[in-house]
Amino acid sequence: MSDAGAYDEERLGRLIGSLEPAPEGWVRAAQEIPAFRRTLDDLVARAEADKAFRDALVADLEAAVAEAGFEPEPRALEELRRRIDGAGQGS
Amino acid sequence: MAVERTSSRLSDPDLVQRCREGSADAWNELVERFSRYVYAICSRGFGLSAADAEDAFQDVFTRVYTRLDTLRDDSAIRPWIAQLTRRVCLDRVARTHEEPVDEIADERLARTTEEIDEAFTVREALADLGEPCHELLDRFFARDESYRTISEQLDLPPGTVASRISRCLAKLRSELEGRNPGESPSGGQR
After folding, report:
1. B41 to chain A, minimum CA–CA distance in Å?
2. A31, A89, B50, B135 - which has most CB atoms within 10 Å?
3. Do B59 and A17 touch (CB under 8 A)?
4. Which among A1, A14, A19 has the least Cβ separation from residue B40?
């Protein structure tokens, strides 16, 4: 890092203003990650224990995630699908 | 260090520990604290499109959440997040660009990483100063509000706003001078 003693007002002002906030929606979604992961774990656990539930989940993954109160975004669905498939292979 | 801190912000190690203990508030704070940094690396450092930057942003925080137990030194959360972010972005660039990854990374990162790290250091120092300095300097420099606007919003005479901004800048300078230069977040990982 540069010498802190060289922080004049202009430079400090420029640096304070140079990091833009991330979009609010992104921050909110990242803050929901723990809750979402728990939901994911619950869904996978139920799928492992209940074949009928697993079949229903596989049939409409998006609806299941939406019903759990989360935006069914592609990356999460992909991970859930992979884990459900894994659970199915293990049964 | 001569600066009196009026902030009750958790230190990085305390914040990490609270996250490990499952505190939702701590996780929210961690995301809030590092969101500008991750966003800047993804969008300015790697020049990702908005869609790719959003995916990378979520991917970074998912990895932070799922791998927090593997962080050996809690005070190194910042370089660790920086490293995770770079890896995620490099993967994404490799998947979506035909240009050689190293070339893109070298060109963009060399120009911007140091400035992003430095800006983050300044913002962290500002946050550590607490209020009213954080709000005053953020309004004036980041939100580009005039003395007059700030004085109206905070119900203070414009002259008071100007003198407080000046005092807060002096405090911020002292705060930065009191920091260990070795705290640089890049951590020699590039």
Report:
1. 10
2. A31
3. no
4. A19
CB contact under 8 A, A27 and B176: no
pLDDT in tens, B45-84: 888 999 999 999 999 999 999 999 999 999 999 999 999 9
Domain boundary among B112, B146, B163: B112
Mind telling me how many Å the CA of B143 is from chain A's nearest CA?
7
ipTM attached to this prediction:
0.81
Closest by CA to B92, choosing from B129, B42, B152, is B42
Show the tokens assigned to B55. 């995916």
Based on the fold, state whether residues B17 and B80 are members of the same structural domain: yes
Per DSSP, B74 falls in state: G
Q: Would residue A43 count as lying in a domain?
A: yes
Q: Does B172 touch chain A (CB under 8 A)?
A: yes
Report the number of distinct structural domains present in chain A: 1
Question: What is this structure's pTM?
Answer: 0.80
Closest CA to B143 of A34, A5, A20: A20
Domain encompassing residue B60: 10-112
Average pLDDT of the segment spanning A32-45: 85
